[in-house]
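Fold this complex.
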Amino acid sequence: MKWSEAHLTDVLVIGAGLAGERVAIEAASRGHTVTILSLVPPRRSHSTAAQGGMQASLGNVAMGYGDNPDIHFEDTVKGSDWGCDQEVARLFVELAPVAVRQMAQWGVPWSRVVPGKRTLPDGVEVEELPEKAGLIAQRQFGGTAKWRTCFASDGTGHVLQYAMDSVVVKLGITVHDRSEAIALIHDGKECYGAVVVSLRTGELRPYLAKATVIATGGYGRMYGVSTNAVINEGTGMAIALDTGVVPLGNMEAVQFHPTGIVPAGILVTEGCRGDGGYLLDKNLHRFMPDYEPVKKEVASRDVVSRWMVHHMRKGFGVDSPYGPHLWLDLRHLGEAHICTNLREVYTICANFLGINCVHELIPVRPTQHYSMGGVRTNIHGEVVGLSRLYAAGEAACWDLHGFNRLGGNSLAETIVAGMVVGERVAEFVKEAPLTFPFSLVEDHLAAQAARIEALRRRASGSEDVYVLRKKMEETLLEHVGIFRTGEGLQQAVATLQELYQRSQDLRLRSSGLGPNPELFAALRLPGMLRLALCIAQGALLRTESRGSHYREDYPQRDDVNWLKRTLATWPPGASMPVIDYEPVKITELPPGDRGYGTMPIK
Amino acid sequence: MAERLLTFSIFRYNPATPEIAPRMQEFQLDETPNMTLFIALNRLREEQDPSLMFDFVCRAAVCGSCGMLINGRPGLACKTLTQDLPDRITLMPLPVFKLVGDLSVDTGVWFRQLNENLEAWIHTDKEFDPKSPEERMDNALAQEIYEAERCIECGSCIAACATANMRADFVGAAGLNRIARFLIDPRDERSPQQVFEVVGTDEGVFGCIGLMACDDICPMEIPLQQQLALVRRKMAWAGLKGK
Ligand SMILES: Cc1cc2nc3c(=O)[nH]c(=O)nc-3n(C[C@H](O)[C@H](O)[C@H](O)COP(=O)(O)OP(=O)(O)OC[C@H]3O[C@@H](n4cnc5c(N)ncnc54)[C@H](O)[C@@H]3O)c2cc1C
Ligand code: SF4
Ligand code: FES
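Structure:
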């Protein structure tokens, strides 16, 4: 390796979504040099696809009057099924309004309060008061006592990401897009940066930093059908796990969103139901009030998804060549509303289903959507097990969401965590020296170079990366989905173990030269399978039901034995993760009834 | 729908193997219902040629990654249904942008440069006060800004533009739309004069020769012609004249 090729920076942020960019801005505006890495140009990060909104207890709209951080806190903890860290949740709810307002100053065109009376779809009449005119408006999302979700028409994630990136451009922060971190450089105690492969050329380069931040988003694409962007493959979590010393928290906590369209899996926002849309079955019966008389369609996502699958299992699904589904009905919301506040939905239906949702029903079913689990950090975003390493956003288990995330809490988390973690990172690098153990860098680089060389040589191996990957996707979907059983999970673990062995024996069909997609897929697959095993094994061992983790053989929440967080680590050379636990911090709200989602499901 | 056998003619070039000249390569694929170019290209990669390079991220027409020339016309591949195309489909990378390989081009670096040149961020002297409530804004204005902010930087309008194809420094429809977005935003304290110092040149507003190919190409249906008119009008008000 030529040392002249090493890239040096104070702070290395892996990931240019909302979380990564917010960390970068905080560190850069405090005077440090920052480099951001991303698989794609920042504005194409997955954050951009969020449609619905961002929670902050501003209480500006009639249905949100009286809202405050305490109520937001309570909703978040209940939503998490008491799985979240309550200190983190408290910090978060206090800062979310600040984050929303700062984004307004940076240019986000939030939708604003328009005074006057209006009638909601369920007949309730509300009046927006003149003194609130022009303040940031909120809409309803699931699992919340108040309307709290700030939004910008139908494209909240897009405008947030564009405003955030405009500040990155303004500050002149270095961004290297089409760059993928494939290993962390570390000595088991401290992290010194990452080995990075260029997705433009296929070449390797070490990035060395005083502090490294993982902000790589979720792993949705490990499930065959997901609302996530195709780049969401969990590689950031995988390289943290590969260190052997960093635990991943609660990987079995996987969220399914009630309304992915069938078959494409593209999301139509929770705003559809928040704004008054209904779920119908094959008899066009609105079934959610039968199960959830109070919250109906706007119970938390885990609960609605479960009832939907349950209802389909009872034979009320609509048959289709792609399996059964249900209907989402927006027709009664009217063209004006659908074509402004839900325009994205309108367009998705037109483009990908060829239907007009002003007049027609939308085929939907629960679809993999979000990873509550991730790289375990403390409240400051410092990664457990390795110093000089931080994590934020969906890739992290900061633990705001426990076993179920509320809609609108993730965008808010990315920005709030970005502020908090960025500040900590800036504090740290102020004092830290920029020194690196030479041989350590060389060793890490050589190990990755050898992997690539072996794949390009095609001297041995027999397994096809796409075949193994498809099998992994199917296995997770079938056995590690919404309804789980000991037997199914056991089978999943066995299959994934076999796939993991086989993934050590990949053979490329193409040359692997240049920006070769097959080579990149082959580099990712073993790490993805390790993550898959953490998810499946964690789910197998957790013999209770909590939030999104529902065990048909253990259908009750069990606070006596399971009020704890799963921690998965992967010792070097092991074939399975080591699973450990830590208690969940309860500081304010002791475990109780969520007020929705009675279990067991009958 | 009768099953069709589709023939794809796809541009191939890998910069890592310059000894192999750029060429068109043919593939055949059976069409399935509601098949998009996202589905088709991934199947080609997985089943026929794993070295095939192309870019998709959201696959839902919101991220702007997948612009390419589809039978000669710039568009988003992920939302293009094969049923709307003839049996023979020719795919080429977008012109203007630097080629990464096959159908993949570097739009990201181009747009970052554009945003740097236009200083496309809110210019303000106001300190952010975390304790005070937000400044008010009329919802109609918020909507108007949002409309302009909807550009996903897909590059289709740039690829379709005669001027942008001739001069590397022309800001194009996407750039003009971006200028319009900041001009109407009261939070940006720049005067129109300050803005036009950046864009009142041939590279900026006056490069446009009015062919307006951009207007019906934009997948977000941003009224680009209208936005251009707005920029020119504001410029006239600012007392500036074209060269
Ligand atoms: C369709 C959809 C709609 C949603 N809507 C909402 C909503 O309305 N409200 C809400 O609160 N939440 C919503 N969410 C969730 C929310 O959008 C995400 O959780 C959040 O945006 C994640 O942000 P992030 O910054 O953590 O990661 P991302 O935005 O996913 O960014 C990850 C970044 O990491 C980079 N990266 C990844 N791996 C590597 C690597 N190995 N090397 C280098 N770079 C890497 C990527 O290029 C990218 O820049 C939605 C999610 C989906 C799927
Ligand atoms: S203006 Fe339209 S066509 Fe041009 S880059 Fe933006 S979204 Fe694409
Ligand atoms: S993949 Fe995002 S626009 Fe096509």
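The radius of gyration of chain B is 21 Å.
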